[in-house]
Amino acid sequence: QAPKAVSQSKTGALDRVGAIIAVASCKGGVGKSTTAVNLAFSLAAAGASVGLMDADIYGPSLPTMVKPDSPQVEFVDGGIKPLTCRGVRLMSFGYVNESSAIMRGPMVANMLTQLLTTTQWGELDYLVLDLPPGTGDIQLTLSQVVSMTAAVHVTTPQLLSFVDVVKGLDMFAKLNVPSVAVVENMAYFTAPDTGVRHELFGRGHRHRLTTAFGIATSVAVPIDPSLCERSDAGVPYVVAFPESETAAIYAELAGSV
Ligand code: ADP
User: Fold this and answer.
1) Which of 212, 181, 247, 195 has its CA nearest to residue 25?
2) ipTM
3) I need a surface site. Which of 139, 191, 209, 230 has the fewest CB within 10 A?
4) For the domain that residue 149 is a member of, what is the CATH number?
5) Cα of 214 to ligand 1 centre, how many Å?
6) Whose CA is nearest to atom 22 of ligand 1?
């Protein structure tokens, strides 16, 4: 699967990276990191070379969600070697600093820029950026450091989350980054005994979003307790259950970027 566009970092550090895909949400807890992880591993399953950068300095998720082959970070030639899991190259502030980050916005933005641009990503088809929630300092700094190829927005079916995703769509439009997909996470739950689908948080708004904003792809991801269990165990869901319906949904998402 070849990237559809070429991105280059404005510092030259990511010049051998094909497409940089931002996974964004305005709210925390909607499943953004879960989406970023499963998108990255779906792209890798399709044969692409992939990097995954956890851009959340305050609350890094990657160290919990993906258990690397070796947890030891190596500093080489003024750079940092990414950790790996099944060939996917990984970087997170949580790998280089185990204590929590207590710092102001501009410092965080500097720290993130340094981490992103000193990581030796090498040649990649895709770099998936798991952005922190919101539309603030960090997102704007990142847009100055790298040319993002496309954005994927993660939301839940509630109206409140819909209102927020519109803010994210607006921000990426202003940054001239095309929004290519909306993920409505926790869209329904299928009862294991009856097979009946329950839309626990109501009927979502993804079709309204895709029509109003001209977004090519929208997918609905179910509530699946094993998504949560796999994350907690450090194994991406699409790696543990490659034949599942949910893995097929993530594969469709991977085809959209
Ligand atoms: P965010 O990055 O938006 O803060 P996370 O990806 O960390 O959100 O997800 C928050 C929590 O919800 C995690 O415990 C995760 O495992 C769980 N979760 C996310 N998506 C689903 C889903 N579709 N079904 C079940 N649990 C989910």
Assistant:
1) 181
2) 0.99
3) 191
4) 3.40.50.300
5) 26
6) 223
